[in-house]
Amino acid sequence: QDDNLPKEPRLRDFVAKPMGEKPVGSLAGIGKVLGKKLEERGFDKAYVVLGQFLVLKKDEDLFREWLKDTCGANAKQSWDCFGCLREWCDAFL
Amino acid sequence: MAAAAAASAPQQLSDEELFSQLRRYGLSPGPVTESTRPVYLKKLKKLREEEQQQQHRSGGRGHKTRNSNNNNTAAASIAATGPAPAGAVGMGVRPVSGDLAHFRTPGGLGRVSASGPENPVGGPGGASSAPTAGSKVLLGFSSDESDVEVSPRDQAGGGGAAAAAAGGETGPAQTNNHIGGGGALGVDSSRIFPNSLPPSAAVAAPGSLRINHSNHTGANHTYLQNAYGKPKLSEPEEELLQQFKREEVSPTGGFSAHYLSMFLLTAACLFFLILGLTYLGMRGTSVSEDGGLSIKNPFDETFGTIQENEKNLMMNTLYKLHDRLAQLAGDHECGSSSQRTLSVQEAAAYLKNLGPEYEDMFNMSLQWIFENGKDVGIRCVGYGPDEQLTNVTDVQFLQSTRPLMSFWCRFRRAFITVTHRLLLLCLGVVMVCVVLRYMKYRWTKEEEETRQMYDMVIKIIDVLRSHNEACQENKDLQPFMPIPHVRDSLILPHDRKRMKKIWDRAVDFLAANESRVRTETRRIGGADFLVWRWIQPSASCDKILVIPSKVWQGQAFHLDRRNSPPNSLTPCLKIRNMFDPVMEIGDQWHLAIQEAILEKCSDNDGIVHIAVDKNSREGCVYVKCLSPEYAGKAFKALHGSWFDGKLVTVKYLRLDRYHHRFPHALTCNTPLKPSNKHMNSMSHLRLRTGLANSQGGS
Questions:
Q1: Mean pLDDT (whole number) for B211-231
Q2: Is residue A73 assigned to a domain?
Q3: Does residue A45 contact residue A22 with C-beta atoms inside 8 Å?
Q4: Does any domain span residue A58?
């Protein structure tokens, strides 16, 4: 869970294969601070956040709003995370 | 109001109530769980506020109930792909309730809200039950409202067909919500599935869903009617057109800034102009005051012997004389009279006209003026202009040194002076501007040339390095390359003359600054050539430091039925995420992008038109092929590949929209090829796989 990685390789690594048991910090846009907050709320794995994303029917506004409320993500972070999950769904779902 | 009956403080709403409330607004929410609840509460609040605004704005409702019938059947048969048909029927229910709100007592409304929570709707699974529930509600009203004739079978049938079709479509449908600005769609309408329900219907429903959020009175029935009345292509046309338009930069922001700056500039200029004129105007008025002052002061010093009354008399005389002379001089200056001076006799006569006492004082005052060395406003001149005056008797003419001009004359003179000065100033400014522009032009040209020189140097180094690598493998090759050969392989023949200067600079640069390349003279085939020899440094550092940009880096995922359409749909493609317009420098980078695409599809001889949209934030490139099969091949080659660290995605576009945007493409039918054989953008792949064919996984 390295914050210093540039975002693009993170997205690439994430989308390149099934997410398995990857931690929530492996999502694009989610760094150490946000990851911790999400874990406190029970979203400790990336697939749980994916679940939330699917439960919100992959709606961008609702998901980004939810992310902002849950862990305080700013616009860029929530956009990155949304994009990452959407790409993943496009590829694997 | 419709919300009044079932509304309570949002926090007290149960999950089911929240869900049904959201449904009534036409939303198709996911399950309300403890994690999604806050988000949905916010959404509900926002919808309610919008509704209240709309209610205040709209007056009476002329909503024909006859059309509510159409609404229902229309709603039922319109299948939303992403949002479940439960939403569509929910929309069908709502207009009725909204309409009947004005005809019904709250008792009737109670039925609507009561039936709401009964629906165990949750996602597409509830689709089948929803139509029946909806029809139940409508039947309940039909007894009261004779116009509303809804047969439950139609409703259920329509709903069922919708559900089935929707279920089939939810698979490949994608949500592209971030496009949903203008068209307000929850679906990706530009993905064209010809074997599905009419796209217009699919598109119209979500569109009307959103619109119904804001205004569910007249707009409702007109819009739905339009969905049938207008040609079916209008909606997807709009959406596709908006897809294109969205990427164009809106110039309005730039305009207002431009106007603002121009306005400020003119205001400042005007201000300074007025200031200058005022100053000059002031200077004119101060003339008369000075004259009076200077006469007073020296008077006290020199003529102590004269008595008081004589003093006053003399003062008056002098004043009168001064005024007369000033007036005369002013007229002369303004051009109305040709005489500037007053002869002594005329002065005496003038004074005599004014009064007898003045005449006596005339000689004394004349003497005083003559003896007074300072400038009192009156000057004594003799016959000639420069004649030296030794005695009072020599004085022949009197002249005013401070002409008294009328205001208009002064203003005119001041204005002329000001204009002249401004003109000179402007000329000066213009010249400075011209000089600056010229310098800037030279500077940019210089920069451009330097940049090109460095590009050339880099290309040369690449060529030399690759030649060196080839030499490592093939011992028969010479380890050096003649300079002209390198030049000829890098620069096209028609460019050589133009690039000659740049080439020479590059050669000098290499000779002076590049340690890995050595310039030698060799005899090849009997002629002397200047050659370059590549000196290979330790292998590791080279590869790490140089990160090539604009190369293909492999594939992210295998393409199969799940993430690509089963067959090629159209011959036109939209490729996204090929670049970031903010990061690109220079003017020619789009050529590199085109090259990269052509090289990636080098075995595909069907690409006839490429256009890079330089302004698009998403990095879009539009490609047209000869036929859908070629487009499908290109799709497989490009979709899901990594290019320059970005994941490239491809989708199909309609041919007529493509031609609308790129009319030039109508006539293109010659396949495009990469401009050179180097395949620079595939270099990474070549190194990795070691094979010439690097397109795998299709």
A1: 46
A2: yes
A3: yes
A4: yes
Look up the domain containing A22 and give its range. Answer: 9-92
Q: Look at A8 and B646 and tell me if their CB atoms are within 8 Å.
A: yes
Answer yes or no: are the C-beta atoms of B394 and B382 closer than 8 Å: yes
Per-residue model confidence as pLDDT tens digits over B363-379 = 777 777 777 666 666 77
Q: CB distance from A75 to chain B under 8 Å?
A: no
Q: Which residues of A touch B35 (CB under 8 A)?
A: 41, 52, 55, 66, 70
Euclidean distance between CA atoms A74 and A14, whole angstroms: 21
Q: What is the pLDDT of residues B383-395, one digit of tens each?
A: 665 556 666 666 6
Q: What's the pTM value of the predicted model, to 2 decimals? A: 0.31
Interface of B with A (CB under 8 A): 28-31, 33, 35-36, 38-40, 42-43, 82-83, 174-175, 177-178, 186, 556-557, 562-563, 640, 642, 645-647, 649
Instruction: For residue B529, list its beta bridge partners.
Output: B522
- Sheet of B397-400: strands edge to edge? B342-343, B397-400, B378-381
Q: How many domains does chain A have?
A: 1
Are residues A45 and B677 in contact, defined by beta-carbon separation less than 8 angstroms?
no
Q: State the CATH number of the domain containing residue A88.
A: 1.10.150.40
Closest residue of chain A to B174, computed from CA coordinates: A90
Across-strand partners of A46? none
- Residue B243 in tokens: 């897809």
Contacts of B83 in chain A (CB under 8 A): 57
C-beta atoms of B178 and A9 within 8 A: no
Residue A17 forms part of a structural domain: yes
- The DSSP-derived string for B185-249 is -SS-TTS--TTSS-HHHHHHHHHHHHHHHH--SHHHHHHHHHHHHS-TTHHHHHHHHHHHHHTSP
pLDDT digits (tens, 9 = 90+) for B488-509: 888 888 888 888 889 999 989 9
Give tens-digit pLDDT for B138-170.
343 444 444 434 344 444 444 444 444 443 444
Which residues are B512's β-sheet partners?
Answer: none
Using an 8 Å Cβ cutoff, are B534 and B464 in contact? Answer: yes
* B177 → closest Cβ in A61, A69, A70: A61
Cβ A57–B42 below 8 Å, yes or no? no
* Segment B456-463 mean pLDDT: 89
Interface test with A, best of B23, B27, B557 (most A CBs within 10 A): B557
A87 at B interface, C-beta within 8 A: yes
Q: Which two structure tokens, joined as six digits, stand for B444? A: 């940019």
Q: What is the pLDDT of residues A2-35, one digit of tens each?
A: 444 445 677 878 887 778 889 998 898 899 999 9
Cβ contacts below 8 Å, chain A against chain B, sum to 66
A59 to chain B, any CB pair closer than 8 A? The answer is: yes
Buried b (16+ CB within 10 A) or exposed e, B198-218: ebbbbbbbbbbbebbbebbbe
> Residue B383: CB partners within 8 Å, gap ≥ 6?
B396
Look at residue A66 and tell me if it is in a domain: yes
% of residues, chain B, pLDDT over 90: 11
CA of B13 vs chain A CAs: smallest distance (Å): 19
Q: Which residues of B249-276 are buried (b: 16+ CB within 10 A; e: fewer)?
A: eeeeeeeeeeeeeeeeeeeeeeeeeeee
Q: Which of B647, B649, B650, B684 to mutate to test the interface with A (most CBs of A within 10 A)?
A: B647
Indicate yes or no: CB of B42 within 8 angstroms of CB of A65.
Answer: yes
What's residue B302's pLDDT? 52
Q: Which of A75-89, B186-200, B358-372, B556-570 has the highest mean pLDDT?
A: A75-89
CA dihedral defined by B548, B550, B556, B559, rounded to 10 degrees? -140
